[in-house]
Amino acid sequence: MSINLVLVQPWVALVAGILILLFPRLLNIIVAVYLIVVGLSGIIR
Q1: Nearest CA to 33 among 19, 7, 2?
Q2: pTM
Q3: How many domains does the chain have?
Q4: Which residue range forms the structural domain that includes residue 39?
Q5: Could you point out which of 4, 6, 10, 22 has its C-alpha 20 to 30 Å from the C-alpha of 37?
């Protein structure tokens, strides 16, 4: 089963936004994880 990143990104952004509103200190962690995932997915393709 292939995961389409175009469909996943809006959900990730929504969840990350909610978490940042609830826990502002998570901003650094969420941004770092997001950048790592996007970078790895770009390298693997």
Answers
A1: 19
A2: 0.55
A3: 1
A4: 5-44
A5: 22
